[in-house]
Amino acid sequence: MPAAKDVYTVDDVRQMPDDGNRYEIIAGELLVTPAPGVSHQTVLARLFRQLADYVERHRLGEIWFAPVDVVFGPHTLVEPDLLFVAGRRAEVVTEREVLGAPDLAVEVLSPSSARTDRGKKRALYQETGVREYWVVDVSEHAVETWRPGATRPEVARVILEWRPDPAVAPLRIDLAALFRPRRLPA
Asked: Rg of the Cα trace of the chain?
């Protein structure tokens, strides 16, 4: 890793080594997290498939999984596990990055990221106008939904409902199915 600095920039992060770690910065502070585990990736894949099918079926916009840079200025770059940008806001998407708040940002908690995801990232997403921020807690089988101005999350433990467009029926995600144990074929 390059020499430590007091304040990091987006350009600094883009020069970090491709070593399997995730490098992000919030207000110039470098955040480094190791590659996620299998349970994290299993839940992330299941969630992505449901969201992507719904978004495509209703032509709502675009959804991506990490790594996709979300840039909030020269000293803040994050890579949510999943993010959605509504079609009516396509101008915030460039070939390289999303410039500003996505409509939905999702983080699946890992032991190494839980504090940042629930603290600094939550505050960043609320302050920058992310319409919904989901904190997916695999160990608790729950999803916290944060919105701008909220002091507490809405917590779903059975069904998670997402309605990015009021003219379209909501997506209902069965959390028991989302969090079911993985079973590899024998």
From this structure: 16
